[in-house]
Amino acid sequence: MCCAPRRGRMQQFALWLACIRTMLIDELKIASKRMPELVKALSTRDMMDLENSGSESVTGLLRAHGAPEFLVPRDLGGGGGSLLEITQIMRVVGSRCPSLSIMMTMHHHTVAAIARGMSSLSGGAACLKRVARERALVASAFAEGRPGADTLDSTVRCTQLDGGAGFRVVGSKKPSSMSHHANFACVGVLVDIGGQTGRGIALVDRALDGTNVSDFWTSEILASADCHCLKFEGVLVPHGFVLVPFADGKVACREGLVVAHAEIVMSCLFQVLISASYLGMATRLCESVLKKRGGTSAQRVEILSRLESAAAAIYHLAASVEKSDISAYLLGKSMLVACNTAAQIEYAVALSVKALGGSGYLSSKEAQYLVLASHCLDFHPPSRQVREEIIDGCYTELI
């Protein structure tokens, strides 16, 4: 008797899954369990309507239903969620609202990096508590739109104030998602202490004087992700909110390693979630092929095998990053998975367009949008060449 209500709920859930017609059965189960209101909101809206609704509307979905606190540790008031779960959820979100998946990737990977890789940053705990308590949003401001530039080579300078009370941050980052709406920005900076410089990380409260935004993103693709230029015009940041490679005013090995470790943690987490997000976009296109019975059965199986093998690699990486000490090996592996995902998406999307046929593709704004959006994975830093150099270097050292 006690099992009857449970069987009834499971039957209702199975019926619901059948009605929405998706290949993301396992992922949707996780999303429905962990973020049910987000799934409901995305299931009742057309994808193109969501993409065209503007950044304020999409940010509202993230703040209200995207569980900003999901990866905040429980002892700080957060959800204590797992990286594997959020990775599966990101694929679902990517298939329903690509711009939201970009926002969520930037927020969640940064929150996880602060929690896991920046424990020596005293301001990090204060930030995470605000995320848990107020659903504050955190933007990632590391990469810059400079062709050929290293992701970590920053033009934002962070100079120590006289007396060591804090730092003055000056410079700009573009593009940076959630640029108008994030409460914090986690910024890669060039730290200057007494004329000595080194890479560091600053956690900037956007409520501080001197943070501004200027337009940068002109494309209609992923426009609602709010990717514009963040400007730091002499922002005064407290000492506990800057991770520096110095000790007693001198470049120090231990402190430098702390910064390097934080950078590796952030990069690994980013590659996992951004790969899942773009895989979700390609999955949506694949679903349209399946629904229309486009192409041949061999073509459809080829598309599925490409996307599902990429998903398996991403999920395995997520579990590895979550359970292991993050190292140069995992950095190389995360870059390898991102490269593989981009290649599989490129092949599967091209085959999907053929399977849809000219009239099917040209008559669908959604299909055209997904083709363009799903190819943007390769545009996220580091460049494919840098990824390949990291992979080659990491695996060569292992051998």
Question: Topology, please?
Answer:
Blueprint: H1 4-20, H2 25-34, H3 36-43, H4 47-51, H5 55-65, H6 83-96, H7 98-117, H8 122-134, E1 138-141, E2 157-160, E3 166-176, E4 184-193, E5 196-205, E6 211-214, E7 228-238, E8 242-243, E9 246-247, E10 250-251, H9 253-292, H10 297-323, H11 328-362, H12 365-374, H13 384-398
Parallel strand pairs: 1-4, 2-4
Antiparallel strand pairs: 2-3, 3-7, 4-5, 5-8, 6-7, 9-10
Distance between the termini: 59 Å
The percentage helix is 55-70%
The count of DSSP E runs of length 2 or more, i.e. the number of strands, is 10
Shape: globular
Question: Poorly predicted ranges (pLDDT <50, ≥5 residues)?
Answer: 14-19
Strand content of the residues, in percent? Answer: 15-25%
> What's the order of the H and E elements?
HHHHHHHHEEEEEEEEEEHHHHH
Structural class of the helix and strand makeup? alpha+beta
- Average of pLDDT: 90
As a whole number of angstroms, the C-alpha radius of gyration is 21 Å
Count of separate DSSP helical elements:
13
Report the biggest beta sheet as strand number plus sense, adding barrel if it closes: 8 strands, mixed
Report on this model:
- There is one protein chain.
- A hairpin with a 2-residue loop joins β9 (246-247) and β10 (250-251).
- The chain has helices at 4-20, 25-34, 36-43, 47-51, 55-65, 83-96, 98-117, 122-134, 253-292, 297-323, 328-362, 365-374, 384-398; strands spanning 138-141, 157-160, 166-176, 184-193, 196-205, 211-214, 228-238, 242-243, 246-247, 250-251.
- Strands 1, 2, 3, 4, 5, 6, 7 and 8 form an eight-stranded mixed β-sheet that branches. The protein has a two-stranded antiparallel sheet with strand order 9-10.
- It contains 13 helices and ten strands.
- α6 (83-96) packs antiparallel against α7, α9 runs parallel beside α11 and α11 (328-362) runs antiparallel to α13.
- The chain is α+β, with helices and mostly antiparallel strands.
- It is globular, with a radius of gyration of 21 Å.
